[in-house]
């Protein structure tokens, strides 16, 4: 019974943690409004893959590599590049009528393989998600749901936490898919503009965190 409660709690925490607007949610929206629903689902699976990978690292490996500032700087700068490219494509898209689209942007939106890789890249370049895994693991331990993290408990926690994170993206894709016919072209263009600036902000944030970690290395003091 306790393992079932653990799975339910991990799923719920994962689901609600995915609600704040981020790069994965933005990329799901872009695909669904252009009738690439399956590509959006593949993007969600890519995001789940990287989230679960970091979950296993966090729960089983205790993230020793995350203490290395050089590693933090590399991932931060890589995330800034990935998000910067997505921001550029999104802002370019906002200035064009709905039926016109950049060839590169179209390929990235409709290709399931590229969508999976995009979702994976967004998650992979954000190793700070490890802190989420550690924080939620500590929470379920403190409240007595999983006072001892055995191997079966850890495996269950990561799998259902990852499913919760992914389920929100899939639900978001279904909702947008249902209402996209009621969304006007002008609304889509304005939404692209707003989402593009959100991606710019996220890119600058990761650039700042990556450079701060890099400059804190002994050789840059």
Q: Can you characterise this structure?
A:
- With 221 residues, the protein is mainly α.
- It has one domain (2-220).
- The protein is 78% helix and 0% strand.
- It has helices at 2-17, 23-33, 37-61, 69-94, 103-110, 112-124, 129-142, 151-179, 185-215.
- Helix 1 (2-17) crosses helix 8 (151-179), helix 2 runs antiparallel to helix 3 (37-61) and helix 3 runs antiparallel to helix 8.
- The longest helix is centred in the last third of the chain and has 31 residues, at 185-215.
- It is globular.
- In the predicted model, the low-confidence regions spanning at least 5 consecutive residues are none
Q: So how many helices?
A: 9
Q: How much helix, percentage-wise, in residues?
A: over 70%
Instruction: Give the domain tally.
Output: 1
The profile of the biggest β sheet is: none
Proportion of beta-strand residues: under 5%
Element order: H for helix, E for strand: HHHHHHHHH
What is the subunit arrangement here? single chain
| Arithmetic mean of pLDDT | 79
Distance between the termini: 53 Å
* Shape category: globular
Give descriptors for this structure.
single chain; 221 residues; mainly alpha; 9 helices
Layout of helices and strands:
Layout: H1 2-17, H2 23-33, H3 37-61, H4 69-94, H5 103-110, H6 112-124, H7 129-142, H8 151-179, H9 185-215
Helix pairs in contact: 1-8, 2-3, 2-8, 2-9, 3-6, 3-7, 3-8, 4-9, 5-6
Short structural summary:
With 221 residues, this protein is mostly helical. Helices cover 78% and strands 0% of the residues.
């Amino acid at each position: 019974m306790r393992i079932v409660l653990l799975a339910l709690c991990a799923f719920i925490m994962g689901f609600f943690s995915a609600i704040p607007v981020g790069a994965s949610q933005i990329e799901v929206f872009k695909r669904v409004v252009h009738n690439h629903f399956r590509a959006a689902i593949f993007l969600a699976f890519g995001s789940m893959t990287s989230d679960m990978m970091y979950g296993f690292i966090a729960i089983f490996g205790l993230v020793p590599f995350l203490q290395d500032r050089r590693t933090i700087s590399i991932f931060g700068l890589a995330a800034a590049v990935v998000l910067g490219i997505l921001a550029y494509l999104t802002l370019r898209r906002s200035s064009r009528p709905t039926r016109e689209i950049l060839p590169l942007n179209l390929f990235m939106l409709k290709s399931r393989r590229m969508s999976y890789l995009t979702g994976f890249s967004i998650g992979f370049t954000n190793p700070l998600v490890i802190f989420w895994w550690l924080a939620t693991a500590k929470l379920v331990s403190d409240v007595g749901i999983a006072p001892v993290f055995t191997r079966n408990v850890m495996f269950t926690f990561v799998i259902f936490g990852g499913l919760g994170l992914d389920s929100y993206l899939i639900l978001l894709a279904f909702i947008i898919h249902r209402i996209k016919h009621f969304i006007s072209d002008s609304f889509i263009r304005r939404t692209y503009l707003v989402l593009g600036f959100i991606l710019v902000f996220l890119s600058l944030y990761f650039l700042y965190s990556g450079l701060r970690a890099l400059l804190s290395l002994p050789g840059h003091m």
